[in-house]
Design goal:
Layout lengths: L1 H12 L4 H9 L3 H23 L2 H27 L5
Helix pairs in contact: 1-3, 2-3, 3-4
Length: 86
């Protein structure tokens, strides 16, 4: 049942432009973040492979890119919810 809900959410988000999806991901919407990954993983992977020349290294680097992106968006959420000066 939860899988169906996630699939429906992904289908609803997918037609949106990247800017709108990024804003949703930055607000903590994991389905939006997944859409960003699905849209851009091939490009990121291709660039990593082109730069590194090794498939396993490229997979690791691409994973790091999306991990850092997620960490950055999570940090943005936490900073936005903290009182100033904290």
């Amino acid at each position: 049942m939860e899988t169906e809900s996630i699939a429906l959410t992904l289908m609803a988000i997918d037609p949106l432009e990247d800017g709108a999806i990024v804003r949703r991901a930055q607000s903590g919407d994991l389905a939006a973040f997944e859409v960003l990954i699905r849209r851009h993983e091939r490009q990121v992977m291709g660039l990593c492979y082109h730069m590194l020349g090794n498939l396993e290294d490229a997979k690791d680097a691409a994973q790091d890119v999306f991990l850092k992106l997620h960490q950055h968006s999570t940090a943005s959420i936490m900073n936005a919810s903290s009182p100033p000066g904290c």
